[in-house]
Amino acid sequence: MSNKSIDALIDDLTDELEPRKPLPHPVVRTFPWAVISFTYLAVIIQVSGLRPDLVHEFHDVNFIFELGLSIFIAVSAFLASAYWCVPDARGKKWLVSLPLMGSAIFIFWNAIRFIIEENARMPDLHWNHCYKDGLAMAILPIASIVIMCRQGKTTCSATMMSMNIIAITSVAYIGLRFTCMLDTVGHSGIAHILPFSIVATIMGFATHRLYKW
To answer: What is the tally of structural domains in the chain?
Structure first.
């Protein structure tokens, strides 16, 4: 093929292409999400009402550890998602190990608590304020994370969606720790985590539609 033919082919392939502004660095995109999500979370917490024993809880090392771990999981999961929304993840595919490691520690921690907790049991399923408050806390973070991820063109939507699910569940869990006084593992699992697992499953079926090219 001659050079003129090659040039003509390139012109045909690129004729309708338009310049696109490169995506900002993933860390830069993570910062606004964190500010928006946690500011919104603070507003919903105030509207829902702080738990009366919050001051006492901040003197409990278990509460502080769980809160800090949840924040780490939320931020690291969103950061991993911000990287994975571009095809090569900017060479940082290993970042998914951070929220996965944090989640494993969280599960192990609560399994230990369940074993040693007095009268530990899984409560019956019934509607309570935690479902309503938790879903309210998750609405804006869900919208913002979907919008952010749609700006990129991921080649592994399942991995990115998994990171999104972990981030959103962690954000809502953090909020509910500030509003709900029931600290049992059973209640946390049923009222603070299960609703988001259901929402995540529903979103999982729509992954390819949400993040299609």
So the answer is: 1
